[in-house]
Amino acid sequence: MNTSEQLFQRALSMIPGGVNSPVRAFRSVGGTPFFTKSANGARLTTADDQELVDFVLTWGPAIHGHNDPDIRAAVREALDRGTSFGTPNPLEVEMAELILSCVPAVKKVRMTNSGTEATMSAIRLARGYTGRNKIIKFSGCYHGHVDSLLVKAGSGALTQGNPDSAGVTPGTAADTLVAEYNNLPALSALFDANAGQIAGLIVEPFPANVGLILPDAGFLAGLRELCTKHGTVLIFDEVMTGFRLSLAGTQGLHDVVPDLVCMGKIIGGGLPVGAFGGEAEIMDKLAPLGPVYQAGTLSGNPVATACGLETLRQISLPGFFEALGAKTRTLVDGLTAAAKSEGVPFSADCEGGMFGFFLLPELPQNYQKVMTSDGKKFNALFHGLLDRGVYIAPALYEAGFVSAAHTQEDIEQTLTAAREVFKQLAA
Q1: How many CA atoms lie less than 13 Å away from 141 in the CB half-sphere?
Q2: How far are the Cα atoms of 108, 262, 321, 332 from residue 243, in angstroms, in the given order?
Q3: Where are the domains of the chain?
């Protein structure tokens, strides 16, 4: 039994499932999860001293790679001043100014401690602002472990949601309607069927918890049009895509301005940070100005904010996203060519520093098509890559990430490993 296996056995007796977030347990891919003892650049070092090229990047935040010296220095400087104050601090103001300068839709912003808190608060704000109860989400889109959002589609796009987790009441789920991504006619019908009742529509503009789905031409603009027509708050959940696709997130790629934007991951640089912001008229409904209560003891924490600020400053440098996007495209094109050469059904795409792939001949455009991907072959691919020193997400329906720290050597090692595994899958 290696060190990771020993640690996992110890954890199982004290931590439910042995992990503090379900996907880490390797339940969907099989086997025992590894434990990481250190990380540097684009690589993890496991408790068993295996070095891995990392395309999970702490599920997105590590856009500069792990243990960046400038980010580490910013955190140390903040630590020297104290870990938490419980009062406003100057870094909160700097963070707000930086976010507003980057994201066109955000005129005012409120800090939280996670992306989940951001989406939860945005939903409450949409309801408080409109005086309505119902929310629309899309099947396959994940918005954190918020009760009202742990709902998925039933038998179609016009289906009232059913709870997707024990502990979520039917009453909570009843106010969440589920639509099909990239299907504007069905969404329009859903609005018409619930006229005057929809407080907000929340969407991952690029759904990344189903591998990565790209919006059809005109889809995001269609969401904007429908929400404006029906007086509904349009919420972009950019916890994953914010500051990863471009400096302005989705708004840097599509000329669509939502009413509220949820952020997380990269704005904390790897420490627990979230935020939501948008039109001043809506944001001013928050306490202490308005009737919508939202709070957080550690919101705007000076250490976490310092980490996020340095992260954002670095990605603001000229040419950052061009270089990151080119590197990600090289990886995706290389994987596609490797699979094709062995006759393995495979499709992939990327945007900015995020990519997704499917063991399908064509890219799926919605959750239902994603679900037809070959899970058994994915598990073999995952473990084959892991055995060869490459770590991708241990789940079929997750996006991957590339960092500024990934080198050409890292990508070549990955493609060499992929060729070997695809050859085995084709046998």
Answers
A1: 31
A2: 17, 12, 9, 20
A3: 3-67+319-426, 69-315
Mean pLDDT in residue range 155-180: 67
CATH class of domain segment(s) 69-315: alpha beta
- Alpha carbons within 13 A on the beta-carbon side of 304: 22
Q: Mean pLDDT, the chain, as a whole number?
A: 93
Whole-angstrom CA distances from 268 to 103, 138, 145, 218, 332 are 16, 26, 19, 32, 27
Q: Are 106 and 261 in contact (CB under 8 A)?
A: yes
Q: How far is CA 416 from the centre of its chain?
A: 28
pLDDT recorded at residue 152: 58
**Is 391 a residue whose pLDDT tops 50?**
yes
Tell me the chain's radius of gyration from C-alpha atoms: 21
- Among 45-54, 371-380, 409-418, which stretch is predicted with the lowest mean pLDDT? 371-380
390-391 β-sheet, strand order: 36-40, 43-46, 51-54, 390-391
DSSP conformation letters of 259-307: SEEEEEGGGGBTBS-EEEEE-HHHHTTBTTTSSB----TTTT-HHHHHH
Task: Give the separation between CA 52 and CA 410, rounded to whole angstroms.
Answer: 10
Measured over the CA atoms of residue 103, residue 109, residue 114 and residue 115, the dihedral's sign is: negative
Q: Which CATH superfamily is domain 3-67+319-426 in?
A: Aspartate Aminotransferase, domain 1 (3.90.1150.10)
| Contact of 203 with 236, CB cutoff 8 Å | yes
Average pLDDT over residues 362-366: 88
User: Is 0.90 surpassed by the pTM of this model?
Assistant: yes
Structure tokens at 341: 């050469």
Contact status, residue 244 vs residue 352, Cβ threshold 8 Å: yes
User: What tens digit of pLDDT does each residue of 195-235 get?
Assistant: 999 999 999 999 988 888 999 999 999 999 999 999 999 99
Q: Copy the structure tokens of residue 200.
A: 């907000």
Q: What is the pLDDT of residue 163?
A: 61
Q: Which of 58-62, 88-92, 173-177, 308-312 has the lowest mean pLDDT?
A: 173-177
Task: Specify the residue for token string 């890219």.
Answer: 363
- Catalytic positions are 142, 237, 265
Helix (H, G, I), strand (E, B) or coil at 91: helix
- Sequence-ordered alpha helix ranges (H) in 17-114: 69-81, 90-102
Alpha-carbon distance of 222 to 182, in angstroms, equals 10
Q: Sign of torsion, CA 74 80 81 83?
A: positive
